[in-house]
Specification:
The chain is α+β, with helices and mostly antiparallel strands. The protein contains six helices and eleven strands.
Length: 267
């Protein structure tokens, strides 16, 4: 039976294949006619970054005109290591939205089948409630064919009461949106009742941030209009120095404090 590498099988698309993916040995190919999804499962001798995986998937999806192109990475169990934890976090973010932010700057140690992760921004209770103790072992089993559990240490929780109070004050400060009957109806995502009894309808935004390892599907818009899916999305470092237009910034809020009667948000 012939063994094909990604480079040899997709030789007509060599310019689209990142160098770290070229030597992957194809184990299985599949195509779902109902949703137009191509699936390529391949074994690798070197660990592949998440960003390279997403880059390859996006380019192949466009080149093949597919609804979706999925690259399934396969490694041997001995390749699982603590150094790959940041990449595992990115894989988790793509399928487990709550991970966003909680593992930033975290330090991981892998011993005896357990990742001991020292987190810096709290969130243990939320992560466990959302199923991190099931999702993480499932991911390592998928990629490395071995179950690895996760144990959280470090700053496990922040002052949630303070956070909830500030969130309530923020919601109370928002005006109730007025709907112009002459304008097309916009999708209402969530209706929230504030402490004063007023209800606020939040809309959702759906922007493709995949190549930046960010999630935006059905993200709530707290203020302003949703970001259009047609907007140009780039990293902040790529914004031209002489640009004078308006810019919308996406980021994780990790701190909030007040100084001289002004609220400041850290991204």
């Amino acid at each position: 039976m012939n063994t094909y590498t990604i480079e040899s099988f997709f030789e007509n698309y060599k310019e689209l294949i990142p160098s770290v993916i070229e030597k992957g040995r194809i184990l299985r190919l599949g195509y779902n006619e109902e949703n137009g999804t191509f699936t390529c499962q391949a074994a690798f001798d070197k660990l592949v970054p998440f960003d390279s995986t997403v880059e390859f998937e996006m380019k192949m999806r466009a080149a093949l005109g597919a609804g979706k192109f999925i690259l399934q990475l396969k490694y041997t169990p001995d390749m699982l290591c603590a150094e790959y934890f940041p990449e595992l976090c990115k894989f988790l973010k793509s399928r487990f939205p709550l991970v966003n932010g909680f593992f930033d700057n975290a330090e991981a140690v892998y011993e005896n089948g357990i990742f001991t992760v020292d987190i810096k921004h709290g969130g243990e209770a939320l992560l466990k409630k959302a199923g991190i103790e099931t999702a993480f072992p499932a991911l390592t089993m998928e990629l490395f064919s071995v179950r690895a559990d996760i144990r959280l240490t470090g700053v496990l929780e922040t002052d949630m009461e303070e956070h909830q109070r500030e969130q309530e004050e923020f919601l109370n400060s928002l005006p109730v949106p007025k709907i112009d009957p002459a304008q097309p109806e916009k999708k209402a995502a969530v209706t929230t009742n504030t402490a004063s009894g007023a209800s606020v309808d939040f809309r959702t935004a759906n922007v493709d941030f995949t190549r930046f390892s960010l999630l935006c599907d059905d993200a709530l818009v707290l203020m302003g209009a949703p970001i259009s899916g047609n907007e140009q999305v780039m990293q902040m470092k790529d914004i031209p120095a002489d640009y004078r237009g308006r810019v919308v910034v996406w980021g994780d809020i990790f701190d909030l404090w007040k100084q001289r009667k002004q609220s400041r948000v850290c991204l």
